[in-house]
Amino acid sequence: MLHSKAIDAHYDRERKALVVEFMDGSAGIWPVRLLEMVRYDGNAWVTVEATEDQLEAVELGGGHVYWDELDQDFRISDLKAGIYGRESWMT
User: Fold this and answer.
1) d(C-alpha 19, C-alpha 38), whole Å
2) Pairing of β 27-31 and β 38-40
3) Which of 29, 44, 54, 74 is the most buried (most CB within 10 A)?
4) Beta-bridge partner residues of 64
């Protein structure tokens, strides 16, 4: 797979998906339902319920896409490799 630099990330409301565009003109599209969005509450992992407005606040930086308000961070290389969360999420 090419290692083209990501130049834009945004949330597509119609597709309910994260879209990452790359310098070479390609794009990756991942339905948000595939992404494990969780936080640890001190005892267990708890699902983070995000609104579409919160999902639209996705940012791009350092080979990651992230949502500051939601405290969620995903490596683009993991997304491209089909890794969307912890091993237990992926099974």
Assistant:
1) 20
2) unpaired
3) 74
4) 61, 75
What CA–CA distance (Å, rounded) separates 9 from 64? 10
Q: Is the pLDDT of residue 1 over 80?
A: no
**What does DSSP assign to residue 55?**
H
Structure tokens at 29: 């599209």
pLDDT of residue 4: 85
Q: Is 49 helix (H, G, I), strand (E, B) or coil?
A: coil
Overall average pLDDT of the 69-83 stretch:
97
The first and second tokens of residue 52, run together, are 């579409």
Q: Is the pTM of this model over 0.85?
A: yes
Query: 89: helix, coil or strand?
Result: helix
